[in-house]
Amino acid sequence: MKSTQQLERQLKRRSKAAKLEIWGRMVSLTALLLIVAVVVGIIGFVASKGIATFTSNHVNLWDFLSGKNWNPGITDAHGKPEVGALPMIVGSFLITILSALVATPFAIGTAVFMNEISPNKGAKILQPVTELLVGIPSVVYGFIGLSVVVPTTRALFGGSGFGILSGTCVLFVMILPTVTSMSADALRAVPRYYREASLALGATQWQTIYKVVLRAATPGLMTAVVFGMARAFGEALAVQMVIGNAALMPNSLVSPSSTLTSVLTTGIGNTVMGSLQNNALWSLALVLLLMSLVFNLIIRLIGRKGRLQ
Amino acid sequence: MNSKTQNKVAIGGLYGIAGFVVLILLALLGFILVSGVPQLSWHFLTAPGKAFLKGGGVGVQLFNSFYLLILAMLISFPIALGAAIYLYEYAKDNWLTTTIRTAIEILSSLPSVVVGLFGFLFFVVKLHLGFSILSGAFALTFFNLPLLARSIEDSLRTVSDVQREGGLALGLSRWETVSRVILPAAVPSILTGVILSAGRVFGEAAALIYTAGQSAPALNFADWNPFNISSPLNPMRPAETLAVHIWKINSEGIMPDAKAISSGSSAVLVIAILLFNFAARYLGKRLYKRLTSA
Amino acid sequence: MFVNNDVMNATTKEERHVIQLNDPEHPVILSTEGLHVYYGKKEALFEGDLQFASNQITALIGPSGSGKSTYLRSLNRMNDRIATVTGKIMYRGVDINQPDIDVYEMRRRVGMVFQRPNPFAKSIYDNIAFALRLRGVTDRHQLDEIVETSLKQAALWDQVKDDLNKSALALSGGQAQRLCIARAIAIKPDILLLDEPASALDPVSTGQLEDTLLSLKAHYTIIIVTHNMQQAARISEYTAFFNQGRVLEYDTTSHIFTNPSVQVTSDYVSGNFG
């Protein structure tokens, strides 16, 4: 009986392992909570700064979203500051959609080639090259845009060469590797027997690709494209270097324009903290942040739909 | 058009697209290397920059890039590791975990300029760190954390659950099992992820222009006391990196040989990232081999 | 005709037959009382109370999904995170299923070896030594000695004694499994639980493993889950037959395999189902 009690005491004493377990759990949980705090902090800070334009400077939200004149230092005829963000919003969306439109067929086409037509060449040449290019810094893309794309645009269409078109070209090349590599992943996830079944039924390779493989991979391909768009929308420096940075409504693809990110990059350093000029820029940052949340949401919705199928 | 011709045309088209893309990608790489490599010299890589004169180098910027990279990795790696361990080894599959995962995903999808602006607001202005290495390192940490955490979590996933059971059955706590059994087995994969993320951090500029700043004061490479203002190690000095340098000299346009310097710097960045890529593959494979063979 | 005969006999058999142990030479060391295991809402085990005799081998047999592995894994609480286990698990008079039991200390006394050999990505030596080091055994000579004894007990010493610093991942399946046994016994447990330890091994390795287990009986109480009925018959003193979450029959191995009291057991051991 005595030995039983002794054993029970031994088994109920908290061991070193149990103490370590509590310690490890706490440490790793702290690290996780730190990341969560960063996310909450970023969203909270940017939101509170971005809202100040509307709460403490009393700018009308609708004027902000639809106004075409961006000149936060100047008041218009009605005594209201000119903080119309429409040119930048339009610029950002235009450049994002155009570059995604151009990049999508190339990216998916290349992914299909890599995965379906010539897996050998794909694995040997295309995959390493795309993976490498995914990692090229965006300033390098911007610099190449500046030294190759802008002069070419200038030669072809006249003007300065800066503008939406140059920005689109740069972003197209920049998101191409990302979208290609994600599309290839999506195609790779389609089970082999889908293709075999289709080919066994007498379908040609193209019919198999078009009707079976692409269809089965649609959610993954859409995710790839939206991911590319999110990257294009949020890209700052590469775009800022080639777009011309004129906060005007873009009236042609080859006239200097601006995007949310380009105005932010050039503006934040030149304004005084707490001033309307500065607050208005934070409102642009808030728009940027909200859009990135929207892209995130879209990717999630696609993922959920893909799972349901 | 019957299905056979259609097939031929379509496949031909795909060959065309793939060929065109390869052409673009190779032209891109070719341009960077052809225009940049001739600029590279010992002088270019080590000399300090000159603002209004030709013939400056990128020595200071290059040093800053590496210093920031190392600091950012030193801060972000333990945090990312801890977070990944909690998420994969401890977290229960419930709404709270899902929410936290979503938060991390949001952080990874935030434009880096937004991360940089937050760094500016919080570290530079609120905490009075000014444009400094420290502010930059924190901004890079935020930029790096979510992707690194996810890559480590994926590495943990590659280690089979039977290894975890093996540790637990020996009377080890989950924490001891993870730190003594699972992590060592996941090292090759974790290392690959870390090096790849280092490449991304190395080339990042948007998060840095308002945190680490856009100026590169001359450094005295003989002075390694971190409290001296001209010491390379001083964490409170502004530190323009190579990537920021490319952006800066191209948007300012006061440097007469900005183009040559940018070409050279771009080549350095791309070559560095190439090396990171190769190192990641090589080391990952090698370590894995060492782990599994005699 | 033969099959019909069998069915005729069925009427004379009991529905459930579980003996109580009473062997003074091999007293009961572990037993369960009112053990129930739930995965979520689903009850995986609801009638599985057994007693285990010390320094004997007890085999748990039964078809897939019968609850035998679930039962075994509950014994050292490896199911804690994935299932709810209620009831008592009495180990030398102490209920180790109480929440305030230190599971880590308990598992050092009730060790386990798994179906798939799971050597760690370390050297052969470190696979055995590292759990000891974590518990404060740092003396090199002492470690060397324990490693050697454990490997000898697991009948692996002669094959690996010159390669102790090589990666354990390079071992063959049978060697790896014996290394796992060596690893488990290095921390000197009281009871060794084995969950189908030979199912991933070839016949020769299986035979060696069985010899190892028979020689370990002198030092440890062994409970083994197996799909292989010949194996149970060859090595165990007692056998429990599980079916659909219940222990249908528990008796000496010779009784179970020669003259089972329950019809389903008889069908199972004669290969009529499962």
From TrEMBL, chain A:
Domain of life according to the entry: Bacteria
SUPFAM superfamilies listed in its UniProt record: MetI-like
Recorded topology in the membrane: Multi-pass membrane protein
Location of the protein in the cell: Cell membrane
Record carries keyword Coiled coil: no
Residues annotated as transmembrane: 22-47, 89-113, 125-150, 156-179, 221-243, 280-299
Keyword Transcription: no
NCBIfam families associated with the record: phosphate_pstC
Function per UniProt: Part of the binding-protein-dependent transport system for phosphate; probably responsible for the translocation of the substrate across the membrane.
Protein name in the entry: Phosphate transport system permease protein
Gene behind the chain: pstC
From TrEMBL, chain B:
Domain ABC transmembrane type-1 residues, every copy: 62-280
InterPro entries with a match to the protein in the record: MetI-like, MetI-like_sf, Phosphate_PstA
Signal sequence annotation: none
Transmembrane segments: 12-34, 66-88, 100-123, 129-149, 181-202, 260-280
Record's keyword terms, sorted: Cell membrane, Membrane, Transmembrane, Transmembrane helix, Transport
Membrane association type: Multi-pass membrane protein
One of the GO biological process terms: phosphate ion transmembrane transport
Gene Ontology CC: plasma membrane
Principal subcellular localization: membrane
GO molecular function: phosphate transmembrane transporter activity
Subcellular compartments: Cell membrane
Alphabetized PANTHER family for the sequence: ABC TRANSPORTER PERMEASE PROTEIN YQGI-RELATED, PHOSPHATE TRANSPORT SYSTEM PERMEASE PROTEIN PSTA-RELATED
Family: Belongs to the binding-protein-dependent transport system permease family. CysTW subfamily.
Protein name per the record: Phosphate transport system permease protein PstA
TrEMBL record, chain C:
Gene Ontology molecular function: any one: phosphate transmembrane transporter activity
SMART domains recorded: AAA (SM00382)
Xref: CDD domains: ABC_PstB_phosphate_transporter
Segments forming a coiled coil: none
Cellular component terms (Gene Ontology): membrane
UniProt keywords, alphabetically: ATP-binding, Cell membrane, Membrane, Nucleotide-binding, Phosphate transport, Translocase, Transport
GO biological process, one term: phosphate ion transmembrane transport
InterPro entries to which the protein is assigned, alphabetical: AAA+_ATPase, ABC_transporter-like_ATP-bd, ABC_transporter-like_CS, P-loop_NTPase, PstB-like
ABC transporter domain: residues covered: 30-269
Protein known as: Phosphate ABC transporter ATP-binding protein
Originating species: Levilactobacillus suantsaiihabitans
